[in-house]
Structures are given as structure tokens and as C-alpha cells.
Design brief:
The structure is a homodimer of 123-residue chains. Chain A has 123 residues and is mainly α. Chain A has 2 domains: 59 residues, 434 Repressor (Amino-terminal Domain), CATH 1.10.260.40; 42 residues. Chain A contains 6 helices and 3 strands, in the order αααααβββα. In chain A, a hairpin with a 2-residue loop joins β2 and β3. The longest helix of chain A is centred in the C-terminal third of the chain and has 25 residues. About 8% of the residues of chain A have low confidence. The interface between A and B is large, with 46 and 49 residues. β2 of chain A pairs parallel with β2 of chain B, so a sheet runs across the interface. The structure holds a DNA duplex (30 and 30 nucleotides).
Chain lengths: 123, 123
Amino acid sequence: MNLNRLMALRKEKGWSLQYVSDQLGMAKSTYAGYESGYRRPSLEAIKSMAELFDTSVDYILGRTDTPFAVLGQSDGSLELTPFLETALSVDGIVLSQEELQHFIAFIRAKREIEQTVSQAKNE
Amino acid sequence: MNLNRLMALRKEKGWSLQYVSDQLGMAKSTYAGYESGYRRPSLEAIKSMAELFDTSVDYILGRTDTPFAVLGQSDGSLELTPFLETALSVDGIVLSQEELQHFIAFIRAKREIEQTVSQAKNE
DNA sequence: CTTTTTTGTTCTCGTTACGCGTACTTTTTA
DNA sequence: TAAAAAGTACGCGTAACGAGAACAAAAAAG
């Protein structure tokens, strides 16, 4: 596992090794070691880098290909209904309408059961 | 920075230290050290943990409070991934983390079954 | 209740590899 | 063309990682 994305992130911002290592409070050679794959950063270090580069640790590690989240509705939430316009996917495979309806039915049933149980407890 | 969420994640799943360390291919004392804050995991280790617990490195590190994300894809669809900044709701009630996890697990299980069935048919 | 097994905690020890300084090459700027 | 900045590479001292072992506590089995 190398941290190939580090250099790309730094270049995107037009920053030098010296500038980045100053911001991170470490030696230039230390940070350079991360980019070249000669050394691996500590958790603290990679966290600082994610903050400096304004992205996620998962993105730096290559666990995800999307560096930024996109918010849905005005209030920041997404409404999941049986007639959803936008597509939802899991593991890169778009959910079918059938899958969505199954899931919604599942959640509703679960909540009804939980409500019944909690009512029973209060009596 | 301690990794308080590790124990919670493990307990949620009802797993023992031995089981988790076996899955991660490390000594029990090594993983125990991470939970107690006595040792800090390598990047490889924390990546494996995120995978095992089905969440994001950012969540384990406490960089985000929500273990799943809805991300915009290039094709305009939405991808549900392990790190998060928005909420999904059903009938106006925001889905809990548990419900999201059930949802993703449900979809994955369903697809695995379907794949197995279709494989069986082709033989 | 007693025994056995599993689970969790803590310590020591050997070794890895981290982080820095430094020296060097390459590139940019004036 | 000289000087400054940027990038690369290496050696050294040491922090701390990871495994194993030993022990306590809790759970399961008998």
C-alpha cells in the first residue's frame, strides 16, 4: 500500500515539500519519505494530512475514490421513498426499485415492532 | 488521539478480542493494545479493521461521527459508502446507524444469494 | 458447587522502522 | 551565471511496535 495520492494532492495545491512539512510540523525529509513510499506516516500524521489537504484519510489510503461528499436536499438529508428519483447504490451496483421497496418495507416493519415492544413495556 | 470506537464496534458485533485478532491476523495482545490505547496500529492494520468492522478509517479515528456516506457519483447516482456527512430517512425519520448497517448488510446478502442461485443454474 | 474453558489485561524482550539531520542533485528565479 | 529553492537519498539513534507469556476475571460445562 503506497500513498500515491499524497503527491497529487500536494501538486494540485501547488505546494512544495518544504511548505507542507512546515504546515505539518515535521522535517521535509520525513514528509518526502511518505510521498516516496520510503516511510509510512503515523495515524496522527495522516490525520493532519487529511486536514491540510481537505480530504479524508480513506481517500489518502485509497479506500475510496471520492474525495468529497455531495449533500442531497436543502436540509442536508436525503429522503428515501418508493418513488425516489435519484439512484442509490451499494458496492457500486445501483439498487433496483424492488430492492428499495423491500428495504423500506423492512424498516417500517422493524419500527412498528419496536414501537409495539416499547408500548408493552410501559403497561 | 485514542481509538475509543474500536471497542464499541467490536462489542456491537459481539466479537471477542481473540476472534478479532484472528481475523486481522495479529496477536490478541496486539489488538488489545489498540483498544486500550497502549499501542497504535499501523496504517495497514487500521485499514484491515475498517474493513472488518465495515466502516471507515475516518470513523475509527474520530474524524467523522457517522460511519456511512452518501456520495455523488459521476453518473449522477448516489453511492452509500462507509464515511459520512449526510443522512438518509424513511417516512421522514432519519435512519439510525444500525438501520443503515442492516440495510447494507441486507442488500449484500440478497445479492450474494442471487449470485449463488444463478451460478447453480448455469451448471 | 467445582472444574474447565474462554476472555481480557499487562508485562518484558527483541527488533523494526520512524523521524531527523545532513549532504547532494536538480530545478527555478533573478 | 549565480543564488536560492525544491526535491532526493542515506545513516544514525531511539521510540515504540508486535509477539509471547503469565495472570486474573468471567463464562461455560460438568
